[in-house]
Write a structure and sequence with these properties.
Elements (H helix, E strand, L loop, with lengths): L2 H13 L2 H8 L3 H15 L4 E4 L2 E4 L1 H24 L6 E8 L3 H12 L6 E8 L2 H9 L5 E7 L3 H10 L2 E9 L2 E5 L19 E5 L4 H9 L10 E5 L2 H10 L4 E4 L12 E4 L8 E8 L6 H17 L5
Parallel strand pairs: 3-4, 3-5, 8-9
Antiparallel strand pairs: 1-2, 5-12, 6-12, 7-10, 7-11
Helix pairs in contact: 1-2, 1-4, 5-10
Length: about 300
């Protein structure tokens, strides 16, 4: 029995199919299928029922999944706590929701280290629930999650149950990012109805109506936008801002450092009335880790200094 096989089982259970698990884990589907068959043969037990609607845990599989999660989380936690502990290397794994200010902060923080110092930083942009899972399981040292402020109590309890500490980084309502020569850039407060016929660039993992109702306005509907362009990485989104005529994006706080050429502007839109909150989270057992503590302090100070809605 291998740790990787347990991780496959967890992913299949979470995603509901081998295909979706393979996509999530960036693995080839046949590899996961073979690994699962080998594991079931080794332990002499069927973990999943194969059904037309996907993979369903057997009763024995449900018990196996609980134990697998405990083992995997313990192993990742052990790895996180005891790997890369040499004093001459700065090692940090950061996961964040799509945030220009987090990426900018990481870059500026790295610049502060002496040239001779060894640095190993991993930065992954993903969704809030995965960040919580990965920080809790030791696969990430620090996470920056995004929630509606109204749900702070719910998430605080969830984080507490997972033995994670949290700190508010910033609170805001979503803004509009567009080129400085966009027809709507003339407005100080962009009328929401004017957006309908312009191209909205949206992260590929987001569903428009869900994103809109959760992050912009509870009454947001798909009918409010005619032209949608789904993109799956930050680099393409930024390139498309320059090439897709009159495009725009809903964004969280944007630091001046993210767009030094002043080719884009951030505009208010009073239709956005949901107060959002970004939290930085880490394991309580890592709160006093020197590198983690330093970065969290740096990030909090950076946001306070750098965020400007009029870039």
């Amino acid at each position: 029995m291998k740790l990787q096989q347990l991780e496959y089982v967890i992913a299949i259970a979470q995603e509901g199919s081998i295909t979706a698990a393979a996509k999530k884990l960036y693995q080839a589907q046949p590899n996961i299928s073979i690994a699962l068959k080998e594991l079931e043969s080794e332990i002499g037990m069927q973990i999943f029922w194969r059904t037309p609607n996907g993979m369903v845990l057997t009763p024995e599989g449900e018990d196996f999944l609980l134990r697998a999660k405990e083992i995997v989380e313990s192993m990742h936690s052990l790895e996180s706590d005891y790997s890369n502990r040499s004093d001459d290397t700065v090692s940090l794994r950061i996961e964040s929701t799509i945030s220009s200010y987090v990426a900018a902060a990481v870059g500026i923080w790295i610049n502060s280290f002496p040239e001779a110092e060894k640095i190993s930083i991993h930065l992954l942009e993903t969704v809030t629930n995965k960040i919580i899972e990965d920080v809790s399981g030791g696969r990430a040292d620090i996470g920056v999650i995004r929630i509606p402020s109204s749900q702070l109590g719910v998430y605080a309890e969830q984080l507490k149950s997972r033995k994670l500490s949290c700190r508010t980084v910033t609170e805001y309502t979503m803004k509009l990012l567009m080129r400085a020569d966009h027809p709507l850039a003339k407005y100080d407060d962009v009328p929401f109805e004017e957006l309908k016929n312009y191209v909205q660039i949206l992260h590929g993992d987001d569903e428009l109506s869900v994103f809109g109702r959760n992050c912009v306005n509870p009454e947001y509907s798909e009918e409010s936008q005619n032209k949608l362009l789904y993109v799956y990485d930050r680099g393409s989104k930024m390139s498309l801002m320059n090439t897709a005529k009159n495009a725009f994006m809903w964004v969280s706080p944007v630091p001046k450092q993210a767009f030094p050429d002043k080719g884009v502007v951030v505009k208010n839109c009073s239709y956005a009335n949901i107060h959002m909150r970004d939290l930085v989270v880490c394991k309580k057992s890592n709160e006093n880790n020197r590198v983690i503590k330093e970065f969290i302090e740096f990030l909090a100070n950076f946001v306070e200094r750098a965020i400007d809605s009029d870039i």
